[in-house]
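Section 5: illustrative case.
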């Protein structure tokens, strides 16, 4: 690994294992917090976020290089969104999906201006991913408080852990592959533990 990292370089978000872990855990926590009949549709909505992440990541890198990924992401998101709309009577989750899209755009803009390791870029990007949890949990209007509590538990935690790691990287700290792998495993375990705790806690609300 180089001794310093160019934080303003154009990264490939899709190669970030941490981002995928945050997204998968958010979807799982949201689906578990919804009603029993909402687990499947919660997974549909989670897949909408996965498709959106594919498309957004391809856009950030450059559509000329990632056109297939962008198209696949758009098709995946559109298909699963249609399935979720057919399966659910309440469409309040669309507001959360729209908010996530705005956060993704803000994350891309912050990354271009301040670098992909900057706190604004991380905060907006993780907000877009963490919003998958309340979107998946919103099976019916009564789940609104539960969905909000879930987001308020997941998002600050992911930002805290990510900024904690990004700070030494921004200062040019040397990270070798072995240390990065060990750090990634530890953070994945912490995120999984916290997501499970947040899902259990939120399930008692409402």
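Designed sequence:
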């Amino acid at each position: 690994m180089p001794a310093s990292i160019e934080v303003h370089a154009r990264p490939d978000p899709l190669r970030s294992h941490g981002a995928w872990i945050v997204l998968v855990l958010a979807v799982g926590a949201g689906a578990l917090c919804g009603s029993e009949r909402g687990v499947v549709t919660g997974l549909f909505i989670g897949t909408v976020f996965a498709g959106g992440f594919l498309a957004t990541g391809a856009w950030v890198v450059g559509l000329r290089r990632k056109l297939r990924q962008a198209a696949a992401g758009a098709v995946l998101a559109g298909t699963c969104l249609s399935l979720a709309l057919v399966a659910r009577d309440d469409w309040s989750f669309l507001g959360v999906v729209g908010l996530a899209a705005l956060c993704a755009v803000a994350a891309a803009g912050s990354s271009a201006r301040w670098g992909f390791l900057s706190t604004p870029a991380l905060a907006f990007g993780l907000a877009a991913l963490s919003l998958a949890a309340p979107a998946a949990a919103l099976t019916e209007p009564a789940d609104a408080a539960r969905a909000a509590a879930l987001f308020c538990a997941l998002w600050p935690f992911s930002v805290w852990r990510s900024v904690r790691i990004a700070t030494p990287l921004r200062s040019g700290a040397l990270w070798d592959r072995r240390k990065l792998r060990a750090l990634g495993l530890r953070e994945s375990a912490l995120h999984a533990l916290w997501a499970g705790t947040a899902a259990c806690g939120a399930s008692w609300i409402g």
